[in-house]
Amino acid sequence: MSDTIISAKNLDFYYGEAHALKNICLDIPEHNITALIGPSGCGKSTFLRTINRMNDLIEGTRVTGSLSYRGEEIYAPDRDVTKLRKSIGMVFQKPNPFPMSIYDNVAYGPRTHGIRAKARLDDIVEQSLRDAAIWDEVKDRLKKNALGLSGGQQQRLCIARALAIKPDVLLMDESTSALDPISTSKIEDLAMELKKDYTIVIVTHNMQQAVRISDKTAFFLLGELIEFGDTEKMFSQPTDKRTEDYITGRFG
Amino acid sequence: MRTKFDQQLDTLGQELIKMGSLCEEVISLAASALIRRDDALAAKIAPLAHEIDEKERQIEAMCLRLLLQQQPVAGDLRQISAALKMVTDMERIGDQAEDIAEILPLLNGRTLPEHIRIREMAKATIKMVTDSVDAYVRQDTAIAEAVISSDDIVDDYFKDIKSSLIFLIAQNPTEGEYALDLLMVAKYFERIGDHAANIAGWVLFSVTGEKDAQPPTG
């Protein structure tokens, strides 16, 4: 049994008056892939974004209850959010490389964190691109603009960029939904490879993807966590009727 | 939502029920042919067994198509995978009824001695098959569990018949071939009971998701 790395206890989240997360209690285990599933508007992406406080960017949001990362409150008043986001990286639905070279995309984070030495940056860039399973495809054109890459390559570049700052946790918000099956499968393989070193939390609308790659699945509905457990169990013998109805496509 | 898939699952269920009914019919025929010593009845068994084979292929194809198209999960996945396993057991029931039918003419029209309890065994086996199909139709775990436990009754009949036949041979060694033929018939009924218990086990799995109550295989 893996240790808990992120723990929510009675977590509530509000967008103004809208109660988006209701009393969420959920322990995310380290070195696992945890999938968050549920119909649109169920709160799964909101929950994902509370983990590295991406919701801070939205005005009028409010959090109550506890959400901790390695035992420390994520929403503590003295929390250094930049440092938090260095530990908890994120990959979004659409690939969003910066309009600069492949190399500079990956070096961007480390440079921001003060790494200047060329040799050191070279190492980080190569290692991150290798870890993101895209090195062989781009090693001969590192100085080319990243926007020239295919969608699947861009998304792996974004993963490399996230890995370059040595995060601890990787959040993936529907990171393959805009990709073709081959790119999707590469990223899924990659996620399963990366979980040796990282903890991964994904939001997905693709049930088969959740089955294929996640160890744990959390099912959200109308802001509540309905069911959380081993993925295999959840997709063969769900406990809650609402889980069964959702994953078998009876609503949602 | 998912109207088409629900229709397909309904059709799958109906086809399984049809196949189950064919199994009930084929084993009843085998038992009647044996008890009434009626070779004309026995001759009807082979075509029915072929119909069962055909049904198996048809249901298998349906299940594979559903797995491919719907990528089912949860209860849907259990229902379809259970169906795939059940048809194998049902098909074996047809085969074994056919095996019985092949032996019957070898008995040369001899009536069955009362004390060899093969009638009772046939009756108990028919009940297992009928109940296993019924358990599926009603998705009833209590009936399924009863089928699994009644497998012991059929096994006991087999042991009893075996002892009677050993005694028969001991008394009259020229009866050896006849006794062995009857023993084969009894063994086929016993195997049919096992298949019915397997079917009941798959009904349990389909309904509950539990697969630890492994039905007997011997």
Question: What does this molecule look like?
Answer:
The complex is a heterodimer of chains A (252) and B (218). Chain A is built from ten helices and ten strands. With 252 residues, chain A is an alpha/beta fold. The radius of gyration of chain A is 18 Å and the shape is globular. With 218 residues, chain B is an all-alpha fold. Chain B has a single domain, classed as Methane Monooxygenase Hydroxylase, Chain G, domain 1 (Up-down Bundle). Chain B is built from seven helices and no strands. Chain B is elongated, with a radius of gyration of 19 Å. The model of chain B has no long low-confidence stretch (mean pLDDT 92). The chains are: A alpha/beta (252), B mainly alpha (218). The A-B interface holds A 207-208, 211, 235-238, 243-244, 247-251 and B 1-2, 5, 71-78, 208-209.
Distance between the termini of chain A: 32 Å
CATH superfamily of chain A: P-loop containing nucleotide triphosphate hydrolases
Ends of chain B: how far apart?
44 Å
**Main sheet makeup of chain A:** 6 strands, mixed
How would you sum up the global shape of chain B? elongated
Show unreliable segments of chain A.
none
Query: What oligomeric arrangement do these chains adopt?
Result: heterodimer
**CATH fold field value of chain A:** Rossmann fold
Largest interface: A-B, 14 and 13 residues
**Gyration radius of chain A, rounded:** 18 Å
The CATH architecture of chain A can be named as 3-Layer(aba) Sandwich
Whole-number average pLDDT of chain B? 92
CATH class membership of chain A: Alpha Beta
Percentage of residues in helical conformation of chain A: 25-40%
Number of helical elements of chain B: 7
Beta fraction of chain A: 25-35%
Count of folded domains of chain A:
1
What's this, in brief?
The complex is a heterodimer of chains A (252) and B (218). Chain A is built from ten helices and ten strands.
Note the main attributes of this structure.
heterodimer; A: 252 residues; Rossmann fold; six-stranded mixed sheet; four-stranded antiparallel sheet; 10 helices; B: 218 residues; 7 helices; 82% helix
